[in-house]
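Lecture 7, part B: from sequences to assemblies.

Below are the input chains for today's worked example.
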Amino acid sequence: MSASAAVEDSRLHDFDITDHDFERARKMIYDFAGIALSSAKRDMVYSRLARRLRELGVDNFDAYLDIVASGDAAEIEAFTNALTTNLTAFFREGHHFPIFADHLTRNGQPQTVWCSAASTGEEPYTIAMTAVEAFGSFDPPVRILASDVDTNVLAAAQAGIYTDDRIAKLEPERLERFFKRGSGVNAGKVRVREELRRLISFRQINLLEDGWPVRGPLDTIFCRNVMIYFDKPTQLAILERFAPLLRGDGLLFAGHSESFHNAAHLFKPRGKTVYGLARGKQ
Ligand SMILES: C[S@@+](CC[C@H](N)C(=O)[O-])C[C@H]1O[C@@H](n2cnc3c(N)ncnc32)[C@H](O)[C@@H]1O
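Predicted structure of the full complex, as structure tokens:
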């Protein structure tokens, strides 16, 4: 091993994570956020939490996990933020948005949309862009609630600032219409226009917790690419709480690898990863 590789290796593995530590961390993130980490995620847990140990000046995992277990709210938040996976993109799973646009304009009524795992904001801004385009107005009759358990990504979403690589695949017309280019110190970045941002309310919501601050009836719920982190009983418990929040003809959009066959009594497929209520209007 070269000298620089040895330094790098010792920096990467400056703490030991025992089987017991890993099991403790797994149980804690499951209890806090419903995230069921497989045993293959040990390196991920190590690298994401090691940074936190360094920041706090704590020299072993056991002591760090004691702080989290003591109920320290700030550290529970930092621990949860560290262990979420936030991959997202503008117009991800693009086949959903023409369906959503038709749904928004189906009945001439004001529309309420909950984007329940909003990450860094690309998804709720895509929802807002679709609403503006569907109604041909920056003042569409659409209210969007964007939430996530992770307070860091929620702050990024609220700021609405993205580096150029994040918007590289957006059509030039959309870029022009919905974003402002940064200059000076902000060169290489864009900011979502205020007219778009004001269509969205941002709020921290943990899908695992009771008493979501969300009032129905909702026309649409986006819950994409988060259920995959939950086990089946947790998924079912969340779907049981989504169902009464939706209007009879409401839609639930799910992620590409998420299917709710085990909840057929609640939701019926209405297209690829789009669901309507089993009890609802067809
Ligand atoms: C992979 S991202 C998906 C983002 C977006 N929905 C998409 O499809 O592009 C998953 C998001 O779910 C959030 N998440 C994980 N557990 C959660 C929970 N218990 N409650 C709410 N959000 C959660 C994570 O913080 C992360 O931002």
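Note for the exam: Residues 1-10 have pLDDT under 50 and may be disordered. Keep this in mind when comparing with the next example.
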